[in-house]
Design brief:
By secondary structure, this protein is mainly α. The chain has 19 helices and two strands. A two-stranded antiparallel ribbon has the order 1-2.
Length: 399
């Protein structure tokens, strides 16, 4: 039978399925149409940030592509994409310890490898391309969540604030924060709109992206538990399936690391070697106290300011609680970031995906006079560009 004959005898798609597909595509198009201004604003502010980094890098004798795509953690992701897991580097500060690439979750390097297999570009360029696309998807998802809950003006402000954070330059680097934020935002949107399988699948991917991606699974499971309790167990199988799917990315990778290292503590041992473990904020408190009582680097003081602002935002969220998915997700992210030991200067980066923390500020700016909002936005833009350039050209602490 020829291909033409096979095609002609194939059963046509049912009208109901065609109509459903048109509805889905229509909703996606409408959502993108409403978000175009937010995406344009976000692209503009991040382009300005990249331009400042490029100028600073050239003046410092460095290449902007290297600073954005092959710097600190990006070195590890690119190496995993090119050679797979198995790299260990001795610690410069702790003799006898070595840093293993098993601390880095697999989804992002797998995407880099997939892109380089399809498109004739290098791994560094592919990593940047993925990060920039993910940042756009994250901005779109943040807008979708904000619009659904608070309207278009708040949604636009929320996206703008996320792109103007002091550490927003990381959204344009070959890091995993943008990818995690995109997966988290759309998983939360799926929960808000009752799409349990999508929420669980996106949470699975988030858990395979970063260790704190487990916060997305926590939100899905908490919402599923509330739904099951509300209906006394008589809920759709999709609720159960979404909850079951959500932690599999994180658990699957942690299990694989345990098998590879021959112990159930394999992943925990890897994190211990990196100096990352739960100490309930004891090391962070000591770092904050030493900064207040003495002196430190600019990146540490900025981290202290961002952490303080995040805690104030949590109080604002408590006064006007968001829906359960956003509340659980935000609390889990903040707990993981602040209760983990060491890397004090990196904690603002760990908080980047916690975009609901910006809701109190977004609500206040949306109610403010346009002149005031533009003035505040301009100040934040200047701070973000200057500090992002400092982080990538002068800071000595890990980004």
């Amino acid at each position: 039978m020829s291909a033409d004959t096979a095609t002609s005898t194939r059963a046509p798609e049912p009208p109901r399925r065609q109509a459903e597909r048109r509805r889905v595509l229509g909703r996606v198009g409408a959502s993108l149409g409403r978000a175009w201004l937010a995406l344009a604003v976000y692209a503009t502010v991040r382009a300005a940030g990249i331009f400042c980094v490029a100028l600073g890098s050239w003046r410092a004798g460095k290449h902007p592509r290297t600073q954005l795509g092959h710097y600190w953690d990006s070195l590890w992701y690119v190496a995993i994409a090119q050679h797979g897991y198995g790299t260990n580097r001795p610690s410069a500060t702790h003799p006898g310890l070595s840093f293993s690439d098993l601390a880095f979750f697999p989804l992002y390097p797998a995407l880099i490898r997939a892109v380089t297999a399809i498109v004739p570009i290098g791994a560094v360029t592919a990593g940047l391309l993925i990060a920039w696309v993910a940042a756009g998807l994250a901005a779109w998802g943040i807008h979708a969540v904000g619009e659904r809950l608070y309207g278009r003006r708040v949604a636009l402000t929320l996206v703008a604030l996320w792109g103007l954070l002091p550490h927003a330059v990381i959204e344009s680097m070959a890091y995993t924060e943008s990818l995690l934020t995109a997966l988290a935002a759309w998983s939360l949107y799926a929960l808000l709109s009752g799409r349990w399988l999508w929420a669980g699948a996106l949470a699975l991917c988030a858990g395979a992206t970063r260790p704190n991606g487990l916060a997305v699974a926590a939100a899905v499971c908490a919402c599923a538990a509330a739904e099951i309790g509300r209906h006394r167990g008589r809920t759709s199988w999709r609720v159960w399936a979404g909850a079951a799917l959500s932690p599999l990315g994180w658990l699957g990778y942690a299990t694989w690391v345990g098998v590879r290292r021959g112990t159930w503590r394999g992943y925990l041992d890897v994190q211990d070697d990196w100096g990352t473990y739960l100490d309930l904020g004891a090391s962070g408190f000591r770092s904050a106290r030493s900064l207040i009582m003495g002196s430190g680097y600019l990146s540490h003081y900025m981290a202290l300011i961002v952490i303080g602002a995040s805690l104030i935002s949590l109080v604002g969220l408590a006064l006007r609680p968001p829906p359960l998915p956003l509340a659980v997700y935000t609390l889990a992210l903040v707990f993981i970031a602040l209760a983990s030991a060491n890397y004090f200067a990196s904690k603002p980066r760990f908080l980047l995906p916690a975009f609901p923390l910006l809701l109190p500020a977004a609500l206040a700016m949306a109610r403010a006079r346009p002149r005031t909002a533009v003035l505040v936005g301009g100040v934040l833009a200047g701070l973000s560009c200057l500090y992002g350039t400092y982080l990538l050209t002068m800071a000595t602490s890990p980004v």
